[in-house]
Amino acid sequence: MLRTPPPQTFPPETLSLDELVPKNHLVRKIDAAIDFEFIRELVAPLYCHNNGRPAIDPVMLLKMMLLGLFGIPSERRLVQKIQVNVAYRWFLRLGLTEKVPDASTLSQNRRRRFNHTALFQQIFDHIVEQAIAKGLVGERILY
């Protein structure tokens, strides 16, 4: 007789994202090599500090855009990948139960804050400078 197995239930477990992401994962290497904190100071003039809706963390926003360069074709697909990829959540400092900013939030921030500015180029240049300083990128490759 064929029996249907009972619904699978999982007991609560306590572990950290850090335990789930392999030590040699690409996002760990990027995180160890690049200090993204400069982004907050660079984009501060684009944000209102005393009123309005709470903003998405600009470091998280730019890290999300960086993850999009990993062959993810759209912002909607990027959000879907982040929702299920533990390594991406670790890189963004998003817990397993924290909500991923939606694709609309990502695209509206990109369009309203960064389009028609030199900020992306400044951020890219700063990241490349850090990578060169750490020996991750040769200057010759850039030109």
From TrEMBL:
Domain (Transposase InsH N-terminal): residue spans on this chain: 16-112
Superkingdom of this protein's organism: Bacteria
Name listed for the protein in its UniProt record: Transposase InsH N-terminal domain-containing protein
